[in-house]
Design goal:
The protein has three domains: 66 residues; 87 residues, Pdz3 Domain, CATH 2.30.42; 222 residues, 2-enoyl-CoA Hydratase, Chain A, domain 1 (Alpha-Beta Complex), CATH 3.90.226. The chain is 34% helix and 24% strand. It has eleven helices and 19 strands. A hairpin with a 7-residue loop joins strand 17 and strand 18.
Length: 413
């Protein structure tokens, strides 16, 4: 049975982790003494256990706030579950993308390819009226997601509206894999790989996609990490190794001052000419990948200067009854040549501004059909009409992806 002492022990463990790993780079105020923190924790013992746990979680947040680090925080149990799902690239549900609309019913963007609904009677543009018996008009994205998720093998019923006809769709919740990479063959026989996030298994998918492109005889490769917020550094090391045999991918400097070079991991598959696309929202592991390939002159970096997140975080899970995890910034990182990136970002070799209104943005899972991708873009253009008018939106719609165009021109040239 969970007790106050167990929660207290986990809180002390978390404080030890923070003290030993968290960088002081942003620290501006004096940290509380250990005796002060112990006293604050022990005063909670008279409270009901649930209230005491909330108090201990608040203490952890307060300590981390003093470090003034925007990337370090206490992650509550619900947030930690979602974080784990993103890292592993999976969850239990029925697998489709949707778009909520203010004061109206959400639209189906499309089922996830390879998911439970891929061959079901659900189509891009369907309106979702009910989930089981719950009317979902004006529901938030998180509220809709909560209704769709559940225990494996449980049944959920969707009421869908299409062409003024209502029909019900019954689906069985299953394990759904989120794919953070997709590929295509573009003009001039150039292979294209989009990576929207570095999940724990993203390198395996990228390897498979690259093998498929090479089998088709492509003459060059574009790797697109625009709008990619980062993720697994191990996946990044593997992906960089697919394209270059250089020994190191990046370096880390820890709280102790020690510098560690992180080695390549995996086999090299190609030496074809390549471009990496980046923009202002390419962060963390995206910058590691692009920075290494730029250092080794293996790829031409095209786009806009990157975000500049040169800090490495690690998540330390905590046991019940405290639960959740603490995320601390354990190191600063740089490119293999020790170029620091935090607050600076990567400067591309060829600067091309990001297209207006980020019409070519792709984030999260991207295993959806081209039709679904086009429908999502049309919804966004409809939203822009309210701000810019129909005539100007037509111009936005005709605006090309200039960064990708430059990449294709560079490789074809």
């Amino acid at each position: 049975m969970s007790t106050f002492k167990q929660a207290r022990a986990q809180t002390l463990k978390a404080l030890d982790i923070i003290d030993s790993t968290q960088l002081n780079v942003f620290l501006q105020r004096e940290l509380p003494t250990r005796d002060k923190l112990l006293n604050d924790i022990d005063t909670l013992e008279t409270l009901p256990l649930d209230d005491a746990v909330v108090g201990m979680q608040a203490i952890l947040n307060k300590v981390l706030d003093i470090y003034n680090d925007p990337f370090a925080n206490y992650i509550n149990p619900k947030q930690h579950k979602r974080y784990t799902q993103r890292r592993t690239g999976g969850f239990v549900g029925i697998g489709f993308k949707f778009r909520v609309t203010k004061d109206a019913y959400p639209y189906v963007i499309g089922p996830l390819l390879g998911g439970p609904l891929e061959n079901a009677n659900i189509k891009t543009g369907d309106t979702i009226i009910k989930i089981d018996d719950a009317d979902i008009k004006a529901k938030s994205s998180s509220e809709v997601s909560a209704l769709l998720k559940g225990e494996a093998n449980s049944i959920v019923t969707l009421q869908l509206l299409r062409d003024d006809q209502i029909h019900d769709l019954e689906a069985r919740r299953q394990s759904v894999q989120l794919h953070y990479a997709r590929s295509a063959v573009l003009a001039s026989n150039i292979g294209y790989i989009k990576i929207s996030r570095f999940g724990g298994k993203t390198h395996e998918r990228v390897k498979s996609l690259l093998e498929g492109l090479l089998a088709q005889g492509v003459k060059g490769i574009v790797v697109d990490v625009r709008d990619n917020p980062g993720g697994s550094t191990r996946a990044t090391r593997n992906i960089m190794s697919l394209f270059d045999e250089a020994p190191y991918v990046f370096c880390e400097q820890y709280k102790s001052g020690k510098v560690k070079k992180l080695p390549r991991e995996g086999e090299t598959l190609t030496n074809l000419p390549m471009v990496v696309l980046v923009n202002e929202h390419s962060m963390s592991s995206s910058e590691i990948l692009a920075g290494a390939l730029q250092d080794y002159k293996r790829a031409t970096i095209i786009g806009a200067p990157t975000y500049g997140k040169g800090l490495i975080q690690r998540v330390f899970p905590l046991a019940e009854p405290l639960g959740g995890a603490v995320r601390t910034t354990i190191a600063m990182y740089g490119t293999p040549s020790h170029r620091l990136l935090h607050g600076r970002g990567l400067v591309p070799d060829i600067y091309v501004p990001t297209p207006a209104h980020r019409l070519y943005r792709e984030t999260g899972s991207i295993n959806i059909s081209d039709q679904a991708r086009a429908f999502r873009r049309s919804l966004y253009l409809e939203e822009l009409k309210a701000h810019h008018g129909a005539d100007k939106v037509k111009l936005f719609d005709q605006m090309p992806d200039t960064q990708l165009q430059q990449a294709l021109f560079h490789l074809a040239g």
